[in-house]
Amino acid sequence: MLKAIAIDDERMALEVIKSHASKVSFITLEAAFSDGIQGLEYHSNNPVDLIFLDINMPDISGIDLMAMLPEATMVIFTTAYSEFAVKGFELNALDYLLKPFSLSRFLQACQKARDWKALQPSGEPEYIFVKTTDSQQRINFGELLYCEAAGNYVSLQLKNEKLISRMTFKELEKLLPSYFIRTHRSFMVNKNKINKIERHQVQIDEHFIPVSISYADFI
């Protein structure tokens, strides 16, 4: 899912973007702004993946605003002026939508954003070293099925073995990538390894891990 905002000084243009975005399953339009500075401030406090950005705005142009964005932010320019197209692509905008644009053209631009995002490294770690009884052992996250809390210890269930390490669950949680999710106050699972989801438990291979009511919405 891509998180997005729209910045355009024309109310009608924002309504069109809202309408189109609501029909694209992998886009969540978090907010829409008619003021470029407000949109920039929102993005600073609530970073999004993608910005639909008008170029010709009264207080600050979309081109100037794009120069203030973090490099990783994807931008799709939206404007009624085709002469800005070359400048937009010089700034590495992902796409350029010439108003009025159709839903199909909007979807094409969104698919380009999704494909570009998929090519970028996640920035998440691939492994950690944990202290066992007599050594520091490397654990590749792709091989870790689930974790269970046991006081000041945690057990880490791999495909073919279980390791015990002295650390708190909170300490471990900070080290794990985002695809490890809580199912219970004492269990975290690798959601990429889940084979089956039932009302009160999930199954990973031959293991059954409990799901409490408090965490059911996150599965």
Structural overview:
The chain contains 6 helices and 15 strands. Strands 2-1-3-4-5 form a 5-stranded parallel beta sheet. The chain has 2 domains: 2-119, 3-Layer(aba) Sandwich (Rossmann fold); 127-218, LytTr DNA-binding domain (OB fold (Dihydrolipoamide Acetyltransferase, E2P), Beta Barrel). It is an alpha/beta fold. A hairpin with a 3-residue loop joins strand 9 (153-158) and strand 10 (162-166).
Topology readout:
Elements: E1 2-7, H1 11-21, E2 27-33, H2 36-45, E3 50-54, H3 62-66, E4 74-79, H4 85-90, E5 95-98, H5 103-119, E6 127-131, E7 136-140, E8 144-150, E9 153-158, E10 162-166, H6 169-175, E11 180-184, E12 187-190, E13 196-197, E14 201-204, E15 207-210
Parallel strand pairs: 1-2, 1-3, 3-4, 4-5
Antiparallel strand pairs: 6-7, 8-9, 8-12, 9-10, 11-12, 13-14, 14-15
At a glance:
InterPro entries: CheY-like_superfamily, LytR-like, LytTR_DNA-bd_dom, Sig_transdc_resp-reg_receiver. 26% of the residues lie in helices and 34% in strands.
Structural category is: alpha/beta
pLDDT averaged over residues: 88
Measured on Cα atoms, how large is the radius of gyration?
Answer: 23 Å
CATH superfamily grouping of the largest domain? Response regulator
Protein name: Two component transcriptional regulator, LytTR family
GO molecular function: DNA binding; phosphorelay response regulator activity
InterPro entries: CheY-like_superfamily (IPR011006), LytR-like (IPR046947), LytTR_DNA-bd_dom (IPR007492), Sig_transdc_resp-reg_receiver (IPR001789)
Domain Response regulatory: 3-114
